[in-house]
Amino acid sequence: xxxxxxxxxxxxxxxxxxxxxxxxxxxxxxxxxxxxxxxxxxxxxxxxxxxxxxxxxxxxxxxxxxxxxxxxxxxxxxxxxxxxxxxxxxxxxxxxxxxxxxxxxxxxxxxxxxxxxxxxxxxxxxxxxxxxxxxxxxxxxxxxxxxxxxxxxxxxxxxxxxxxxxxxxxxxxxxxxxxxxxxxxxxxxxxxxxxxxxxxxxxxxxxxxxxxxxxxxxxxxxxxxxxxxxxxxxxxxxxxxxxxxxxxxxxxxxxxxxxxxxxxxxxxxxxxxxxxxxxxxxxxxxxxxxxxxxxxx
Amino acid sequence: xxxxxxxxxxxxxxxxxxxxxxxxxxxxxxxxxxxxxxxxxxxxxxxxxxxxxxxxxxxxxxxxxxxxxxxxxxxxxxxxxxxxxxxxxxxxxxxxxxxxxxxxxxxxxxxxxxxxxxxxxxxxxxxxxxxxxxxxxxxxxxxxxxxxxxxxxxxxxxxxxxxxxxxxxxxxxxxxxxxxxxxxxxxxxxxxxxxxxxxxxxxxxxxxxxxxxxxxxxxxxxxxxxxxxxxxxxxxxxxxxxxxxxxxxxxxxxxxxxxxxxxxxxxxxxxxxxxxxxxxxxxxxxxxxxxxxxxxxxxxxxxxxxxxxxxxxxxxxxxxxxxxxxxxxxxxxxxxxxxxxxxxxxxxxxxxxxxxxxxxxxxxxxxxxxxxxxxxxxxxxxxxxxxxxxxxxxxxxxxxxxxxxxxxxxxxxxxxxxxxxxxxxxxxxxxxxxxxxxxxxxxxxxxxxxxxxxxxxxxxxxxxxxxxxxxxxxxxxxxxxxxxxxxxxxxxx
Lengths: 297, 493
Fold this sequence. Notes:
The complex is a heterodimer.
Chain A: E1 29-33, E2 39-44, H1 48-67, H2 70-85, H3 88-97, H4 102-122, H5 126-130, E3 132-133, E4 140-148, E5 151-155, H6 163-174, E6 178-182, H7 189-199, E7 208-211, H8 215-224, E8 230-233, H9 238-248, E9 254-257, H10 271-276, E10 278-286
Parallel strand pairs in A: 5-6, 5-8, 6-7, 8-9
Antiparallel strand pairs in A: 1-2, 3-4, 4-10
Chain B: E1 35-36, E2 38-40, E3 43-45, E4 52-57, E5 62-68, H1 72-90, H2 95-111, H3 113-124, H4 128-149, H5 153-156, E6 162-164, E7 167-171, H6 177-190, E8 194-198, H7 205-216, E9 224-226, H8 231-239, E10 245-249, H9 252-261, E11 268-272, E12 278-281, H10 287-299, E13 311-315, H11 319-331, H12 351-366, E14 370-373, E15 388-391, H13 398-401, E16 408-414, H14 417-425, E17 432-436, H15 440-449, E18 454-457, E19 476-477, E20 490-492
Parallel strand pairs in B: 1-5, 7-8, 7-10, 8-9, 10-11, 12-13, 12-17, 13-16, 15-16, 17-18
Antiparallel strand pairs in B: 2-3, 4-5, 6-20, 11-19, 14-15
Helix pairs in contact in B: 2-4, 3-4, 4-6, 10-11
């Protein structure tokens, strides 16, 4: 390098917990390499404590996020899409640095923005689609509505470091859940840069928390954590998923493996995926029935 | 009334000078056979290993019948029969024709309702007025409801292709034996699946009579198979490799084991597990109606109800009055012969369950809660437990956190709305809750913020085939009843 050339400033990739960018409390890192084997960044090797901190942040944020109006959540998802669109160049460079071709990177970013827009539109509509007023035989008003499951852990696929992550994230938060995401282990950079998008899109702190590190290690803590209500994974090895199922049973977790869903196609988005992370609540109330009133109007 | 002494406030004394005349239902119409075999492939078949167990009447401890124990080979036969029936008949049949078979089942159940009600009460100990007026008609209605869905599934899942799953393995509990069998079988058949069902060990008889009804309705052989046995048979069913779907209703403990057993398989699962329902009474509630609601919430079916309102939260300002009224009402509850048409609280389902309830009573006393039990007379034979109130219960005590599954109400108090929401949500369960208040906005605040699958406002313990039922958190997942009850039995694409 010649003396006249300006020295590039490199970015430190940290975690995203509770709306802030802390380093892992463990002080551990791992080298992220490009396909040529050159180190392009040092990512945080998150610990069990980082996961627990992220779950506390997600649980704390749940009440506020789930009680926001669907309209407001939709606006925030739309804002996320806007912020991502405006940072296309940055994300393309990162995807390419992690080994993708320029055209594949462009396609992935375009699909990701469109996916966010798709779910932004669902935020205030899936409730009507999946609710019902139930005609019970007694004199009661009875209705059923979807409500968010709670704190959801998302295990993003190793490939598609941006689209994969967003395809899991968007239906989850559109439905009012809060989340802890484990980014692609080999390609974690886009996930952390995406946290910068979240930061500027008015997503409340704690709604989305992003960890980087060892899948094997962190998923075992996730599946055993008693305050995580659900786990969604995609492109996960059958044995690995079976271990998560085994351990997740201890707290009756809702476990979804979206392995068979092609996230690059239209099949990768659906209101039924929002419904995977919803609970149906049924409410009853008596209807006053005064003798003789039935024929009075 | 006995003559009152001077200066002593007169009190109502129930159960002293009032005697109720007996009003017994006859056991005869139950027509329970001496022995029941396994219902596999449309035929009654002897168990391969020829083992039988006895089912008894918990109110008299008398043996009602010998029932076959299904071994691994029998489970295998039943699953094979269900698979063949799925491939050969059921998946090929049009929705409309499937529906007509299910309608037939509903109709025959209505026709044989008295026989079923009496059998249910003899086998399980619940009051005849409950099995006659609730269990049996609701079970028949459940078949009637889902029969109509069979040819209308496209309307239930917009923009999706709907397919059946295959063979469903189903395990039902002992608290509502026939009703739970209906909750399991009706939606499975309507969506085009075939069934192997195992009823609870202590209450198999009405499910075996349902097998007779299914035979009478002339369903293709193997579409529904009923196998009996203990939990061991249930384990074999959940582990069977040729099953596509497991539906279980029972304890959270067993539910977790089943969920773990299914790890690594492609079997779909629904779990309807335990609960510790909070019944919340605000000071502006209609007090006398709320008292009735609380009594019904915890003492319905001897408290053997997963969604029972077993934790009462009463606002501090009315707690004294409310508890006094509860005690008065407790005194008028009739405990005893389940076959008597006036009985309110029948027999505890099994000796084992009675022991479990009694152990919780000891735990409650040791934890320092105030114990109050109705002083009614109970029969000398059989398993009975007069209703119990525990007051001054701490939020953290075991009797406030764990499911007792008996006629035991824990009473806690609160001052503010936020406080009671936090306390009500503070268990691993999330099946049901009740709210009593005169204020509409408060009802909706609570019904929204309580983390439970069924919320009863100014009422409690109501069920209907059109109304989805199921839990949040460790109370399980998936819904039974209503449109949402179809999801667990279909594959969407």
